[in-house]
Design a protein that fits this description.
Length: 214
């Protein structure tokens, strides 16, 4: 059976038999935010949700649109009641935001680097979207080098995880690769084949990886 490696920021509670490689580190930022100016918040990652927990203001009263279910679950754990969930992709946010007729001004709590251009497309459709950088992702320089088997199944959960992985390792033709979504898939080097998980979740990635590992 092939060994499975999860190349991501954090491990996951349902990854038994999967080796986690903490390739990324997160640095939270706390810029001044006047939440009273907005009708709602857009969050596209668990880290974006956790960044909001550093604020003591009453931001939980706002309507929140999350990119997918895992992000929405983190927001529920933070006490948010009014949540709408997209299909796991940045482009899916446009359809959800278009339905929020009673909420006119949105704040996108984002990482320093983003791979999707959905905010500009939202503005082209007349939506009011402000952006604030609440965290940045960096390669984890303190991570000890883990030996990667040549027949490994590799799970990548973001473009950043691919970038940092390639700083330390080489993607081999013998590796089987699972990616969490289209944006991550497009971040792979040209000619590298991969399988995209059925859903944009770590659970779905692990399920596919285990099928490939047999």
């Amino acid at each position: 059976m092939r060994p499975i490696y999860l190349v991501s920021k954090t491990s996951h509670h349902e990854t038994e038999g999967v080796i986690h490689i903490p390739i990324l580190s997160i640095h939270f930022l706390t810029p001044s935010i006047y939440f009273s100016q907005y009708d709602g918040i857009v969050v596209t990652s668990k880290q974006g949700a956790l960044a909001l927990s550093h604020y003591s203001l009453d931001w939980e009263r706002l309507h929140v649109v999350c990119v997918g279910e895992s992000t929405a679950q983190t927001m529920r754990e933070l006490g948010v009641k009014h949540i709408e969930t997209a299909n796991g992709y940045g482009e899916g946010l446009l359809d959800v935001l278009a339905l929020q007729k009673d909420h006119q001004k949105w704040l996108y709590c984002r990482p320093k680097m983003i791979a999707s251009s959905w905010p500009s497309r939202a503005r082209e459709r007349g939506m009011v979207i402000d952006e604030v950088i609440v965290y940045e992702t960096q390669c984890n320089q303190e991570m000890k080098l883990v030996e990667i088997a040549s027949d490994a199944v590799l799970i990548f959960t973001s473009p950043s995880s691919i970038e940092c992985f390639q700083e330390r390792y080489t993607l081999l033709p013998t590796h089987r690769i699972v990616v969490i979504g289209k944006t991550t898939k497009n971040a792979l080097p040209s000619g590298i084949e991969s399988m995209q998980s059925e859903n944009t979740s770590v659970e779905s990635c692990v399920k596919m990886a285990k099928e490939l590992a047999v």
